[in-house]
Design brief:
The protein has two domains: 155 residues, Phosphorylase Kinase, domain 1 (2-Layer Sandwich); 200 residues, Transferase(Phosphotransferase) domain 1 (Transferase(Phosphotransferase), domain 1, Orthogonal Bundle), CATH 1.10.510. Helix content is 30%, strand content 16%. It is built from ten helices and 15 strands. Strands 2, 3, 4, 5, 6, 7 and 8 form a seven-stranded mixed beta sheet that branches. Strands 1-14 form a two-stranded antiparallel ribbon. A hairpin with a 5-residue loop joins strand 10 and strand 11. About 10% of the residues have low confidence. GO terms for molecular function: ATP binding; protein kinase activity.
Length: 373
Amino acid sequence: MKCFYLFKEKRKDKKSTSAPELREQTPRNVPENRVSRSANSASSSSIPELYKDKKHNLRVFTLDELREATNDFNRMLKIGEGGFGSVYKGTVKPPNGKGNPTVVAIKKLNKYGMQGHKEWLAEVQFLSVAAHPKLVKLVGYCAVDGERGIQRLLVYEYMANKSLEDHLFGTKLPPLPWVTRLKIMLDAAEGLAYLHHGLEFQVIFRDFKSSNVLLDENMNAKLSDFGMAREGPTGDRTHVSTAPVGTYGYAAPEYIETGHLKQKSDIYSYGVVLYEILTGRRAIERNRPTAEQKLLDWVKHFPADSKMFRMIMDFRLRNQYPVNAARKIAKLADKCLRKEPAGRPDMSEIIQVLKGAILESEGSSSIPQSSGT
């Protein structure tokens, strides 16, 4: 799934000697810092301001340390790749050299990638301020400037079970059971609830999708990739205005059309992923027949209350789900996808519905109801 941007950017090493600041290495034609406050904001604290007090919590790695951790970025250790660059599995030693090494994930940004210094800086600042069990933890970073260009790396806790996207659409992993899908979405909802209501300021994720939901060794889900995160509106403002960025198929239509970013923009994206867990299909699949390429257009032909509803369900579930619970999730997705943002539910309602569906599913015999129900 490709990201869309309304801009492009171009890109003997020297180690950065201090924590990254807003003034450093700003590409000329990248929009304003995506996590900074909008002009005339009335909020008491912003992410950059809070970052100044908490940046010492992050470890500053040298490039040599990360080369050693990844065997010089060996492609055999590559566990992910995207427009931002590549992600490697690595092992880093404790800062004092004593104790056991730690397995981590190391994101190495492309020198000339579309997501450059600004997105890297946004993530460093945000994850130094925000801390929640449903957000991937940032261990540290590396910033190097030299004649051959800039080097920007992020070091995260390692998530052993890859992403929700890998499990839903990959061919090398077993299909996710019904209840596991619901619990993953509940974890993700709790992460979004924290962004929307758990900080001194509102944060809009802006790029919620299945590939940004990572899974640990126990299949607990955490949100990742905060390079596009943005502080939400303050005071009596209803939105922040920004150049639309995100991923086709997930971004809210009003945001794409107007550039008006709201908390409910994340809710729309969440609704798209709810339909992905129901159907086992991506938001957009160009290799399908024309009528089925756009997931949201296709599912409209099979309403949650109709006898045909079960036609959309992921065949890999092998009918091992309670149909009534699946209908409730589809109805929740439909509410998240309402055209008017004000009509979409907030995260507290979403969490409540998911918890109810999980209880119902765990209490059922997992034998589907008849197709006539």
